[in-house]
Amino acid sequence: MEKFHEHDCECCHYLGSEKKKKEELDYYVCDQGDKRPTVIARFGVDGDYYSGLFPVKGYAMQMLDKQQEKTLAEAVLSLRKDKSDLTPLIEATARAIEQGFLDENLNMKTVEKKLKM
User: Rounded to 5, what percent of the chain is helix, strand, coil?
Assistant: First the structure.
């Protein structure tokens, strides 16, 4: 699928796009140039987006309190079925995990430059 919206950050990696109800979402993971990752769900032509790995980590950690045998990554993947305000960011994080950008603790893995946007 092609991107719906322009995105010009050189630190971002495109994860795919999808249309959900009335929103056209493009998903990215960004190492912000220093290996502190964040996830982005862009939904507008004027730079409109959801961003933040921290709230997704917090939500996943709450799940881990109940199921301690899981990793953070496994918790995020199981959160995909939940509907919340974090749903676009959970989807972006899940895609980043599945595509090998984030490890089991949601830290950025080393990726080749050719994988950029």
Answer: 30, 25, 45
Residue ranges of domains in the chain = 12-110
SS in 3 state form for 72-101? HHHHHHHHCCCCCCCHHHHHHHHHHHHCCC
In the chain, the percentage of residues whose pLDDT exceeds 70 is 93
CB 70 within 8 A of CB 57: no
Instruction: Give pTM, 2 decimals.
Output: 0.85
C-alpha angle 67/69/71, rounded to 5°?
95
8 or 88: which leads in pLDDT = 88
Bridge partners of 17, per DSSP, are 26
